[in-house]
């Protein structure tokens, strides 16, 4: 099963992608996590990506597409995957489609987690991320058991640089201009499914389960 998560930054794509990955036993692939882990490790790719991420801009397609295609070619992706944060532009979606069609394959579902901008602004300020294992929390809605510490790996939780209010507005703007057109792109292919992302995360997941079966 090959799934794409669509939605604004902070809509809950990562939260739901992890739950899908656990239940359906497919890897969760987040290009944002890949970039953040490169930044943490001080790689050349990380330093290049950070220039864009800190401004709330997209990392150029040339860098992003290669990383993603290399990742989905790995062995653990044979039975599918859930992509979180990719594609984010029409050219990225076209490259993915082409790469899949060359191996007679295709994306099964594009799940759009729908959350209005007002809720997004509130959510991002409360998000806390673990840069070690990629887990995400929310200080009010989904708090960790111990404040500031990741339940999964015990490392420190941080407010992402790009979750600061001045960057969030930019990211939303970029989302509407560059990423939202993908909703129409996948709708035209007949694989778009939209779920209400404003409800409790368990209820969002139930809606997704009824789509995936
Ligand atoms: P995305 O991957 O789309 O950027 P996340 O999954 O990181 O979004 O979620 C953004 C923030 O909102 C996080 O702090 C997360 O814990 C919180 N969150 C996710 N789903 C819900 C929900 N259904 N209700 C309230 N908060 C949520
Ligand atoms: P995310 O963790 O998905 O919110 O992504 C954080 C940041 O990483 C984005 O704001 C972009 O700067 C960058 N990024 C992640 N995925 C992509 C992508 N598919 N294309 C371009 N930039 C990306």
Q: What does this entry look like structurally?
A:
By secondary structure, the protein is of the alpha/beta class. The protein is about 45% helix and about 15% strand. The chain has nine helices and eight strands. The chain has a five-stranded parallel β-sheet, sandwiched between helices. A three-stranded antiparallel β-sheet has the order 6-5-7. Helix 6 (about 115-125) crosses helix 7 (about 165-180). The protein is globular. It starts with a strand and ends with a helix. The structure holds adenosine-5'-diphosphate (ADP) and adenosine monophosphate.
Kindly state the mean pLDDT as a whole number?
96
Bound ligands, named by name, code or SMILES: adenosine-5'-diphosphate, adenosine monophosphate
Strand content: 15-25%
What would you call the shape? globular
Helical content stands at: 40-55%
Rg, rounded, reads 16 Å
Q: Profile the largest sheet.
A: 5 strands, parallel
Unreliable runs, pLDDT <50, ≥5 residues? Answer: none
Q: Roughly how many Å apart are the termini?
A: 11 Å
Count up the helices: 9
How many individual β-strands?
8
Q: How would you write the strand order of the largest sheet? A: 2-3-1-4-8
Q: What is the element string, with H for helices and E for strands?
A: EHEHHHEHEHEEEHHEH
- Global structural class: alpha/beta
């Amino acid at each position: 099963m090959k799934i794409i998560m669509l939605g604004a930054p902070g809509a809950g794509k990562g939260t739901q992608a992890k739950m899908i990955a656990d239940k359906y036993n497919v890897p969760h692939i987040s290009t944002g996590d890949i970039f953040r882990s490169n930044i943490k490790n001080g790689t050349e790719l990380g330093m290049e990506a950070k220039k864009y991420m800190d401004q709330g801009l997209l990392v150029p397609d040339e860098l992003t597409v290669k990383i993603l295609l290399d990742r989905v070619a790995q062995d653990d992706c044979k039975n599918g995957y859930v992509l979180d944060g990719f594609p984010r532009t029409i050219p990225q979606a076209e490259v993915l489609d082409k790469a899949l069609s060359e191996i007679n394959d295709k994306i099964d579902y594009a799940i759009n987690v729908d959350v209005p901008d007002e809720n997004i602004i509130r959510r991002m300020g409360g998000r806390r991320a673990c840069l070690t294992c990629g887990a995400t929390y929310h200080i009010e809605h989904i708090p960790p058991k111990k404040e500031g510490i990741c339940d999964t790996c015990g490392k420190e939780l941080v407010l992402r640089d790009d979750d600061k209010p001045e960057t969030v507005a930019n990211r939303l703007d970029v989302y509407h201009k560059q990423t939202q057109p993908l909703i129409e792109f996948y709708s035209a292919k007949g694989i778009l499914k939209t779920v209400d992302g404003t409800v409790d995360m368990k209820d969002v997941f139930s809606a997704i389960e009824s789509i995936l079966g």
